Amino acid sequence: MKIVNWKMKIHKMSIHKSVMLEEAIEALNLKNGDVVVDATLGGGGHSLEIIKKILPDGKLIAIDQDQETIEKFEKFLDKLKIKPKKESISLNHGNFSELKNILEKNGTSKVSAILADFGISSDQLEDTDRGFSFQKNARLDMRMNQEGKLSAWNVVNEYGEERLGEILREYGEEKFAYYIAKAITNARKKKSIDTTNELVEIIESSVPGSYRRKKIHCATKSFQAIRMEVNKERENLNIFLGHAIEVLNKKGRLAVITFHSGEDRVVKNIFRENARGCICPKEFPVCRCDNTPSVMVITKKPISPSAEEIAINSRSRSAKLRIVEKI
Fold it and tell me: Rounded CA gap, 26 and 7, in Å?
């Protein structure tokens, strides 16, 4: 198998820059022959590095809920000057929470390593038809899976004021959540809110001037929260983590990159729970639960991007990488 210069070619496939690429790949301890899951294919940067490590005898099982992402990666692979075995790369349209079903379809139940990067792809942010970014005017959509029924339009125009406020506060950690929710529900009484620009104007009108003048745009957290609700990101993350730990081989590694403090807390807590041994009350003189740890936490504190990476890719600034190893 001929290995091409991946770094020279990847920019032709995607404008997305994979965050903490070297750190994440190193964390997985990959070798030729491994069966590895990239649970969030995205721009494909991580998958390309995985392929370098595990072929010719290994297998990559890549998953993404965006069919366009998969099609772009397929076209890119066709252009690469390598001829891996047909069964060496499996691209699967689906949500990362469907991990176990996707593995079953691929004829396996256990894998050597799993990587998940829960950041939104720059390709999606820059796509004016998708409505992910407040910086570009587009219809309110934000569906990562275009087959999904729930869109940002539904959330903004149909959710009750209280529920909308809860979403903005919980998922976006937006301190003016309920002011924004009230402004949204008042505005839609006159007409539906159909575009990202309309939503931004409503958010800007509902927060103090000092908040609007901050370095981070005042719509950032609200757009993040609505996207997370549309794609059920928190619920799917919980399902995925449990299944990912279950399907790992002994000594297998799971590496997870998050970009939101709430999601990082979920990952940290689930990793800690699975790394615990006895869960009996402290007053018990002898363990009665027989609970044993299933993983060992490799990162006591999360790994963050280097200053150099943040300077090159500002979107990486909030990223956190956590790693566990199956016992």
Answer: 17
- pLDDT tens for each residue of 160-204: 999 999 999 999 999 999 999 999 999 999 999 999 999 999 999
Cα–Cα distance for residue pair 74/17, rounded to 1 Å: 18
Find the CATH number of the domain harbouring 60: 3.40.50.150
Last residue of a domain, one of 169, 204, 230: 230
0.85 surpassed by pTM: yes
Q: What ranges in the chain are assigned the alpha helix state H?
A: 6-13, 21-27, 45-54, 67-79, 99-105, 122-126, 152-158, 161-172, 177-187, 196-206, 209-212, 220-230, 233-247, 261-275, 307-312
What is the C-alpha to C-alpha distance for residues 149 and 137, in angstroms, rounded to an integer?
Answer: 21
- Beta strand 111-117 pairing with 89-93: unpaired
- Is the bond leading into 293 cis (omega within 30 degrees of zero)? no
Give the pairing of strands 295-297 and 35-38.
unpaired
**How many domains does the chain divide into?**
2
In terms of residue numbers, what domain contains 223? 146-230
> Which of 206, 230, 254 finishes a domain?
230
Q: Average pLDDT for residues 38-59, to the nearest whole number?
A: 94
Buried b (16+ CB within 10 A) or exposed e, 169-208: bebbebebbbbbbbbbbebbeeeebbebebbbebbbebbe
* AA letter at 146: Q
